[in-house]
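Worked example 3 (structure in, sequence out).
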């Protein structure tokens, strides 16, 4: 159920379903960067087996998410992972999904996340019929907050939540992006 149905091609990136065995060595290498883990609940993996058997296998086989390997189009190098939740009906009776991504540090702030997000959101809003996408970030994770805001996300709420990595309560920002706003910002018919 959570397996992505198709791949997507952009100028910089190609998104394709995760290949657990094939992607493991490249993703292990990317995840050795400590900055990749500052705001996540995970740690630097100890070996390729952990990346393959725990990280990638979870993304690839989780029944509640669609996950893609983000590949640099010109080199086919794995540069990240993108996932969205399988759409569900919310309390407000809207079809929604959740979103998250990880991009290797050498590709930060170079348009890779923006293009991957565009491919995934076009799929979610157009093919899956999603009405809104929700995402969250720790308030101190300025880059993630600014990235979401530049994509059209609006702050829905700010609330305290315990962060086990920092062993303290921090503020988390929950964002919402509605289909109409995405379409307006990206020149799509409403």
């Amino acid at each position: 159920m959570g397996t992505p149905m198709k791949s997507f091609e952009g100028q910089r990136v190609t998104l394709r379903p995760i290949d657990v065995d094939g992607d493991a060595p490249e993703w292990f290498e990317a995840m050795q960067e400590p900055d990749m883990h500052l705001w996540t609940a995970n740690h630097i993996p100890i070996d390729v087996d952990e990346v393959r058997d725990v990280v990638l296998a979870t993304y690839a086989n989780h029944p509640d998410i669609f996950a893609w390997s983000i590949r640099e189009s010109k080199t086919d190098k794995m540069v990240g992972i993108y996932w969205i939740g399988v759409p569900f009906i919310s309390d407000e009776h809207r079809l929604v999904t959740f979103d998250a991504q990880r991009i290797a540090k050498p590709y930060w702030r170079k348009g890779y996340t923006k293009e991957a997000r565009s491919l995934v959101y076009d799929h979610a809003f157009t093919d899956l019929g999603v009405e809104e996408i929700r995402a969250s970030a720790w308030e101190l994770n300025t880059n993630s907050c600014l990235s979401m805001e530049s994509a059209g996300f609006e702050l829905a709420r700010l609330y305290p939540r315990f962060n086990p990595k920092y062993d303290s309560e921090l503020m988390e920002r929950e964002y919402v992006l509605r289909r109409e706003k995405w379409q307006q910002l990206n020149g799509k018919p409403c």
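Notes: Residues 8-185 form a domain with the Aminopeptidase fold (CATH 3.40.630.30). The first helix runs from residue 20 to 30.
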